[in-house]
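Chapter review: from sequence to fold.
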Amino acid sequence: MSQKKLVLILTLLVHFANAQVENSRANNLLRQISSGALLNTSDTLKSIATAKDLLVKIKSEKNYREMALTYKALMYLSDKKTHLLYSDSILTAANHTKDDILIASAYMTRATVYYGQKDNKNALDNFLLADEYISKTDDSYSIYKIKFGIAQTKYYLGFYDEAISLFRECIDYFKEENDRAYLNSIHGLGVCYNKVGKYDLSSATNQLGINEGRKLENLDMESYFIHSEGINQYFKNNYSKAIKDLNSTIPSMQSKKDFANETVAYFYLGKCFWSLKEQEKAIEYFKKVDKAFEQQKYIRPDLRESYELLIDYYKNHRDTKSQLYYINQLLKVDHILGHNYKYLLRKIVKEYDTKELLKSKQEIENAMTFRTVVGFSIITLMALVIVYLVYRHFKNKRLFEEVMKRDTTQPKTLNNNIEYLVSEVSTKQEMINPQIQETNNKQTSQEISPDIEVGILKKLDKLEASKKYLEKDMTLVKMASLLNTNTKYVTKVIAKHRGKGTIEYITDLKIDYIIDILKKESKYRNYTNKALGEEAGFGSTQNFTRAFKVRTGITPTYFIYKLKKSITAANSQ
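The token string follows.
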């Protein structure tokens, strides 16, 4: 997410909290912060002191609602390093109020803090907790603000199809509620369409954003839609149009001090010129990407290719000094990406890392002959590359062996002793007296009775045995229908007896089935990933390969390669 969208979420958070206590002391302070009245003054320390004095008074009154809002004010006034601690204090105070809206706001604040730290997993967890609380209310506006945050986080985690669905919902809602949120949702949808290769839909969505912005007389986002379309035109191989669009957005990004999107524009301009065989121009743009990394520490997975192309370019031009510089820069980049984008980096490392670093190794070996002055540095770097490649090799080998040892014929179960559950039902029924019966009647609406639980579990076992889970587009609602119960009960039974969420449970069953047939039947080892995905009922090849990687840690292609190799070795003995 660009700084622009992050600021939008922060602004929405302030609005969210302000709506709860219109005339409170803490709310007045938050209003001043959101308007910039305090943050733009030179005496920020005085503002912090005022907020802390207010906090002391509120604590003595045990006014937890205002306490949460005051902690939020302090968070906005303080250094970013303290934001996570303040967000924890906000949540603690909010929980004391038992107010679902305020608790949801607190989780959303913490999600935004994690998001700013690029900790996308924790950000998503907290957005989902916020959604859980706000869903208990009828505050539609807040519900969709949280959906927007979840959509942005899922986009960064690479769950593009899920993000697309959420952005569509946000567009439908915000169209009549909030112009800026509406336009941001359209922009998010267009970017996601690009990521899944639906370039025509991405173009149509970007144009919709431009048209709607002009219709609403809100042009703040127009440069972002043009920026997005420039990237999209690159993927459509319309390089001249891409260059024109991207160049036109750079002044706007510079005036807004949006160095992130400015850097992304430089990268895709470089890619366009590289594709047009104008490498000298391309290299200058890739150097701008490195400059942004050096000055702003900004990088994201797709920009990593700049360094691969720079290394290759200087290798071909026999400029060992520049090549070595960009190899070192790439190692720094990988360290940061490995921490901030570990989910997306797995795919990028598979496609690029080994190939390009092996090229670098060869270049370093050649350079050692001619460049003795930098010999020690090159040897050290070569050793690091070799260690990394060896580590990758043994890691993949270990993961393959673990999959081969795994029993994929039966799902892993927890507390799945049906006879014990049946006995428990009978025992409890015999021990019921009138007073306990009355208590149980009050609890019926909250818990699943053991006899119903046994019934669902038996049906679940039958579903697994019949492999009904292989049906295409198997969802929670569809599973509940097959088990003749409701989605709430299905979710609870699967969580209790399979130890997983419903979607994870269904996906793991499908992947375990594929692993099992690959082990047992040779014909499947010649299937393409697309064919295997269809065999397991996945909606797309991308979803199948991603699910396989998540389940096993390796790709299906690598697994089949190693499986064939191990079988050949065993037969030759």
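Two observations follow directly from the output. The radius of gyration is 28 Å. Confidence is low (pLDDT under 50) at residues 3-22, 424-446.
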